[in-house]
Amino acid sequence: MASDPPLLEALLVVSCFVFRHCSGVDTVTATRPIKDGSTGDVVVSKDGKFTLGFFGHRGYRYVGIWYNYEISHPGRERSRNRSTVCWVANRDDPLRDFSGVMKISEDGNLVVLDGRRRVLWSTNVSLTVLKANSTSATLQDSGDLVLSAERGDDIESGRYVTRVILWARYDHPMQSGRQGIGLKAQDFLFKRWKSTLVILFIIVGLPLLVFCVYSWRRRKIKRKEIESCRELLSSSIELEENGKCPELPLFDLSTLMTATNNFSLESKLGEGGFGSVYKGTLSNGQEIAVKRLSGRSRQGGEEFKNEVMVIAKLQHRNLVKILGYCSHREEKMLIYEYMRNKSLDSFIFDSSRRVLLDWRRRFNIIMGIARGVLYLHEDSRLMIIHRDLKASNILLDNQMNPKISDFGMARIFCANQTQANTNRIVGTYGYMSPEYAMDGLFSVKSDVFSFGILMLEIVSGRRNSHCYQDAESSTSVNLSSQAWELWKGGRGLELLDSSIVGPCPADEIQRCIQVGLLCVQEDASERPTMSSVVFMLSNETSMPSPQQPPAFSIRKAASKADCSTWEKGTYSVNDVTMSEVEAR
């Protein structure tokens, strides 16, 4: 019966309990039981307000006490008889037929029996010292049911007799461990009380209910958005439990070993924080780049999974294309299209190769990177924060078109997510935004900061992470500070790499420097979005001016031991990515 609504707590108001009362019978004795099915076989309190007997509910039969009252309606001559259930004896063990009986048992207890004389309910009082045949149960005017017994001398003239209360259903529940709720008549008699309760529910309960439903729906919608994002990841780009990714071709280890000449030193293109990169040639003549992650690096395994998750579904001309992967025991490898011109840093920071990048090529590289980052932030099916934009992660194809690579540090945001934080800082010094480096907060504006630094490096051919001695003063500054000083003094063109040959449109160069300074503002809210960056770089329109020096401005006394002159532009920097990857 656990599925039925509680009969007592709900205080069900029923209109079907109209019985023919037996006047003056308020006691159950050993010779006067209550039998179900017998017309008028009930016990009624002396004032006639409370009745003890059998009643039905949802096809079951119960023994209980109910209160009888009348309801009168204006304009009607006759009033309506109503009954409210106050207490139920066998609520946990109802009868299924009309064979029930409530009686005084042989041991003096008040019991409810079924047709097979099985005890469904009992007062369960020990009567070893009393006369069992002297007990009776009386329904009082207060609605309490009291089991009592006579005790005294033998039946003689002048005997002393008293009644002892053995069990009672009083006005508080769970009396003596027995279930029951004692309800006085005044607790539910009057229409005014019921009207007050209804009004109170409308005033207090209904708004609270509406608020709870609203909050629940908000949480449900929020969970649905998060689950949709997770389903998108798990169904489209996440690795399966067996280590396979259905979206990417799986390469055999033997195929890659043959393509790279067993990963020989001659095939090695470079080495990073998570492993080495090798050049390979497949049997069909296609050239590939194989990123072999270090088996000793836990972070390498995290980077492998993260990069496959992020880049498998992305398609853009300015993002490196992943061709497949290999997962064989401890070996984890990613296969990319081969970029013959390698990375951007091998050009702009190399004194012999930087001359190959005239201004037109540099500007095209800047625009290509900007469009690629814009795609990650706004135009792809997922909002992706790269978190490690730098010159060494920009690859150049045969036509010197830029390709953003290395998504091992990237984070995926859901549609309504704007910011996240981490206790593990990853990235490269010199490219990290201040809020990320200092507080672990990152957003799309973190990538904007990195892009601004990268753009100033492309324009100047110098690294931001190194300090340079100003030829006109005795102080040393980093690249972003030098750009600020020159731009503020109206000498922004002096930042341009002196090795550039060919036409150099001054307005375009000035626009790149100004946008770069806007991107590296210390306050993230002052930085433009990538869509604004692309618009400002593509159009000759008025732009806002940076109002403060860039973040991480460095100005100190020059020292020949750690700084080089601005004119020479030499540098010595450890530009290694911090490789402590946080869990995603």
Largest sheet: 5 strands, antiparallel
CATH class category of the largest domain: Mainly Alpha
Large-scale geometry: elongated
Unreliable runs: 5-24, 155-160, 171-191, 232-243, 565-584
Radius of gyration, rounded?
A: 43 Å
The CATH homologous superfamily of the largest domain corresponds to Transferase(Phosphotransferase) domain 1
Helix content: 25-40%
Q: If strands are numbered along the chain, what order do they take across the biggest sheet?
A: 1-7-6-5-4
The CATH topology of the largest domain is Transferase(Phosphotransferase), domain 1
- Average residue pLDDT: 77
Count of domains: 3
CATH architecture of the largest domain: Orthogonal Bundle
Q: Could you give the distance between the termini?
A: 48 Å
Number of helices: 10
Q: In percent terms, what proportion of residues is strand?
A: 15-25%
Return the structural class. Answer: alpha+beta
Number of strands: 28
Concise overview:
By secondary structure, this protein is an alpha+beta fold. 25% of the residues lie in helices and 22% in strands. The strands form 8 sheets. A 5-stranded antiparallel β-sheet has the order 1-7-6-5-4, with no helix packed on it. A 5-stranded antiparallel β-sheet has the order 14-15-16-18-17, with helices on both faces. Strands 2-11-12-13 form a 4-stranded antiparallel β-sheet, with no helix packed on it.
Please outline the helices and strands.
Blueprint: E1 13-14, E2 27-28, E3 34-35, E4 43-44, E5 50-57, E6 60-71, E7 80-88, E8 101-104, E9 110-113, E10 119-122, E11 135-139, E12 145-152, E13 161-169, H1 191-236, H2 253-259, E14 268-271, E15 275-281, E16 287-293, H3 298-311, E17 322-328, E18 331-337, H4 345-348, H5 359-379, E19 383-385, E20 394-396, E21 402-404, E22 411-413, E23 420-421, H6 434-439, E24 441-442, H7 444-460, E25 467-469, E26 475-478, H8 479-488, H9 506-519, H10 530-538, E27 555-557, E28 564-565
Parallel strand pairs: 25-28
Antiparallel strand pairs: 1-7, 2-11, 3-8, 4-5, 5-6, 6-7, 8-9, 9-10, 11-12, 12-13, 14-15, 15-16, 16-18, 17-18, 19-22, 20-21, 23-24, 25-26, 26-27
